[in-house]
Write a structure and sequence with these properties.
The chain is an alpha/beta fold. It contains 13 helices and 17 strands.
């Protein structure tokens, strides 16, 4: 049966769910596939070759693949489009049970001798895609990206590959769009000051994304271990946002405390394994987006930050207790329980207004993001359709 299922998976991936099994004793990964219940009867009666719609005299139509490099991916996916696509997807899910129509298998990790390779598929009622990422630290010496990635976008009906989108930039856009969507529903409308921890690509995109949903932002503090990198980010952003004051924070506890205390919105976008944000400096009414610690060993915020947050949300509740180092560390210190997590992105979009007034100046709200292939697929689908409409974006390749 497993062999049959694997063969059928090649025909129609969306009809199957994937289970990843990792042995704790032996370093191997195995996959098994099982048909979704609504396709079970179809599987039992399916024949290896379907000929009802084929004709010997019918010539196949030419098939084209749309390839988008980094710059073309940027053009096809402005941050506003990414935010809107994620928001509309969650609004369209009238009930939580509607999310069952989306398929999000566990990511597949292949630990090669050069570094891990990750395969992250997902399928919604509209989109089918897989993100492939390779972590190759040695690429620094080759002047190549250390985390090259690509998103493959498929036509669900035909199974044909329709698009290839550059993965790293789309991941940055997707991650910041999720934070922006959380900010739209959880932060105060009168937010004026944004403090960003980090000075890399994620920090840059978070500034753009937060400003898209809170155009009243007037000042941005940039806090980073490397002050020179913080200055470089400020210099890149000033011409793009001339009406906003960008201030680089000195790398000492007093200066970081002041930048934290003054903030209405805080975004932590680092790969730190030690907390960069201390809860004792957070003011009432602050909204937090914490997206950097996506592995158990990582930690951007201290346990006190989690403990003093009145309302806590995440993007994907299924993965949060396995991947979010911030929550794992807080739980170990007795500062967080599972019931403190109020919900995920569905809750934020559809139910948060019933839980509290986002304009309340006394409560602290925390959004924790670890990402996921579902969100990659949603944003990739929106970007592909946008590029397909614009004949000047991308390169068409006949298959």
């Amino acid at each position: 049966m497993r062999m049959l299922a694997c063969r059928l998976l090649h025909w129609n991936f969306s009809n199957f769910s994937m289970v990843l099994i990792k042995s704790p004793e032996i370093r191997y990964y195995s996959l098994s596939f099982r048909p979704h219940r609504k396709f079970h009867s179809q599987l039992q009666t399916m024949t290896p070759i379907e000929t009802s719609h084929s004709s010997e005299n019918q010539s196949p139509r030419p098939q084209f693949l749309l390839y988008l490099n980094k710059q073309q991916t940027l053009l096809s996916c402005p941050i506003e489009l990414a935010i809107d696509s994620l928001e509309q997807f969650h609004i369209s899910q009238k009930t939580r049970s509607s999310l069952n129509e989306s398929w999000v298998p566990p990511r597949i990790v292949i630990p090669t001798e050069y570094g891990p390779s990750l395969f992250m598929p997902a399928c919604t009622t509209q989109d089918l895609a897989i993100k492939i990422v390779h972590v190759r630290q040695a690429n620094k010496e080759r002047n190549l990206p250390t985390v090259p990635g690509m998103i493959l976008y498929y036509d669900q009906q035909t199974g044909m590959l329709r698009g290839m989108l550059e993965g790293s930039v789309l991941t940055c856009i997707r991650t910041s769009a999720l934070s922006a969507l959380a900010t739209k529903y959880l932060s105060r409308d009168d937010s004026r000051v944004l403090t960003v921890f980090g000075a890399g690509n994620e920090a840059e995109w978070h500034i753009r994304a937060i400003r898209a949903v809170r155009p009243g932002i007037q000042k941005v503090f940039i806090v980073n271990r490397s002050v020179s990198n913080a200055h470089k980010l400020a210099e890149r952003m000033r011409p793009e946002m001339p009406k906003i004051s960008f201030e680089v924070v000195e790398n000492d506890s007093v200066a970081k405390g002041e930048a934290t205390r003054e903030a209405d919105i805080i975004c932590t976008c680092t790969n730190s394994s030690q907390p960069v944000l201390e809860g004792k400096f957070i003011s009432p009414g602050t909204h937090l987006n914490c997206i950097g610690s996506y592995m158990p060993r990582m930690q951007e915020i201290d346990a006190e930050t989690v403990a003093q947050s009145d309302y806590i949300f995440c993007d994907a509740s299924e993965a949060i207790w396995h991947e979010a180092g911030d929550f794992i560390h807080a739980a170990r210190e007795g500062k967080m329980r599972e019931e403190d997590l109020l919900g995920d992105m569905f809750t934020i979009v559809n139910e948060s207004a019933k839980l509290f007034d986002r304009n309340d100046p006394m409560i602290v709200r925390l959004f924790k993001g670890v990402g996921g292939s579902l969100f990659d697929t949603i944003v990739a689908g929106a970007a592909f359709r946008n590029a397909e409409k614009d004949q000047d974006i991308g390169q068409k390749i006949e298959l």
